[in-house]
Amino acid sequence: MPPQQFSTQAKTWRLFIDEILISASGGNLIDGTDFPALIGNGITFVGSSVPDLDSSINTAQDLSQISAMIQLIGTQFRVNPPTIPMPKTIKLVTDGYNCPQPTTRKDSMHACCKKDPKFKATLRKTKFFPRQKGDLTISYDVNQVYENNYMVEVTMENNHLLGRLDHWNLTWEWTRGEFIYSMKGAFTCVIEYSDCIYGAAGQYYKDMDFSKVVNCQKNPIVSDLPPEKANDTEIGKIPHCCKNGTILPIHMDPSKSKSVFQMQVFKVPPDLNKTAIYPPEKWKIMGILNPDYKSGAPIRVDPA
User: Name one GO cellular component term (predicted).
Assistant: First the structure.
């Protein structure tokens, strides 16, 4: 805080300073917190580009598939040079692993985690996790896949007993240069395609008419359509769409507890195959006079 000048007063001011994480590449905070983030009480990271780590045998020791690197930039207070700031501990919290106390040297820390022989894994029908529960769940379901684009349905379901959403705005962050070519059941607040023309998309899709593209922003903002667009053959005709952004609690009215829209998403190199699909990250949903929702990191789940 700067020194007080003249007769300026700071009544009942409070100042709390602790460790601050400015950025982290290669991983996301599990609770979806934005940077800069206060992490004085510890924080858990999840994988972004590499959410799962395979075995050395299955990958012929391909380091890109068996390892993950998270590069951190942050600020730690109350540490005077030449002391090097280090975390109190580091461990793997994935089910089925035990981690000893880490070994710390002057400027490094490591822990060798081992599989827990007593852990009994829950048998799953697929390799994905079951659908998660929350006050408000957001599903990103890919239902048609092509070489360079795919069709996806986004569903928001309100499971809260009392909380409702009015005039919702939904946003996320593309991580691989994707862009929205078309959309039904909702609209983007800005129709913008300059990022495509001057970016990787423009270099690859040289013959595409980008004036027909809905949105090329890295962080698009999507809103619901009004009810009069529900039967519009071009932008409507989607079940559970077009409610002017209102999502009621499921116990109040099940027919109005869900909101759905569809998108056609185009990809850019090197993700030009049917299996290279990366969901957006850093989801946020906001409304007017509604509860504040905090979204966790997305995880792959069983198909609906």
Answer: membrane
Distance from chain centroid for Cα 130 = 18
C-alpha to C-alpha distance for 205 and 181, rounded to whole angstroms: 12
What confidence tier does 37 reach under pLDDT thresholds 50, 70, 90?
Answer: confident
User: What's the pLDDT band for 25 if we cut at 50, 70, 90?
Assistant: confident
With beta carbons less than 8 A apart as the criterion, state whether 4 and 254 touch: no
Q: Assess whether pLDDT exceeds 90 at residue 150.
A: yes
The pLDDT value recorded for residue 87 is 77
Tell me the domains of the chain and their CATH numbers: 20-115 (no CATH), 136-286 (2.60.40.290)
- Is residue 297 predicted with pLDDT exceeding 80? no
Mean pLDDT of 116-124: 75
What's the rounded mean pLDDT across residues 74-83?
Answer: 72
Based on the number of CB atoms within 10 Å of its own CB, is 37 exposed (0-12), middle (13-18) or buried (19 or more)? Answer: middle
pLDDT computed for residue 208 by the predictor:
94
Estimate to the nearest angstrom the gap between the alpha carbon of 60 and the chain centroid: 30
> What is the reported pLDDT for 126?
62
Q: Tell me, letter by letter, the H, E, C secondary structure of the chain.
A: CCCCCCCCCCCCCCCCCCCEEEEEECEEECCCCCCCEECCCCCCEEECCCCCCCCHHHHCCCHHHHCCCCEEEEECCCCCCCCCCCCCCCCCCCCCEECCCCEECCCCEECCCEECCCCCCCCCCCCCECCCCCCEEEEEEEEEECCCEEEEEEEEEECCCCCCECCCEEEEECCCCCEEEEEECEEECCCECHHHHCCHHHHHCCCCCHHHCCECCCCCEEEECCHHHCCCCCCCCCCCCCCCCCECCCCCCHHHCEEEEEEEEECCCCCCCCCCCCCCEEEEEECCCCCCCCCCCCCCECCC
Residues in the chain: 304
Contact (CB, 8 A) for 203 and 271: no
